[in-house]
Amino acid sequence: MPHVVVHAADGRELGRFDLADAAGAPRRIVIGRAADCDLRIAHSTVSRHHCALVRDDDGEWTAHDLGSTHGTWFDGQRAASARIAADSTIRIGPAILRFIGVAARSSPPAKGPPR
């Protein structure tokens, strides 16, 4: 089952969060320090609503920074958004999120009739 493992900067595992593929699974997961976030990281360098994980109709996930003060780091680079693949990492404040079991981006369908 796809999930996120949350680590501290020193490598300690802090927890896990399931990204269930089952019907009714959330299409948007908000990460931040506010009480209403789906995945809460209580740290002063984490914005109230820091980042959102969005699942598209194909079941693929994209992470979007929500205008955070200190930024969201995707695989070591600060960016506004990034497609999530197996073993992607996101750093939000002192937390490092590693994505496990997330499907790699599929190839676009071929255009035209088969030959």
What ranges have pLDDT less than 50 throughout 5 or more consecutive residues?
107-115
Count every helix, treating DSSP H or I runs of 4 or more residues as helices: 0
Query: Which structural class do the helices and strands define?
Result: mainly beta
Q: Average pLDDT value?
A: 85
| Computed Rg | 15 Å
Main sheet: strands, sense, barrel: 6 strands, antiparallel
**Strand order, largest beta sheet:** 2-1-11-10-7-8
CA-to-CA gap between the ends?
A: 37 Å
Number of structural units classed as domains? 1
- What amount of the residues lies in strands? 35-45%
What is the top-level CATH class? Mainly Beta
Query: At CATH's second level, what is the architecture?
Result: Sandwich
The CATH topology corresponds to: Tumour Suppressor Smad4
The arrangement of helices and strands along the chain is EEEEEEEEEEE
What is the total tally of β strands? 11
Morphology call: globular
> Roughly how much helix do the residues carry, as a percent range?
under 10%
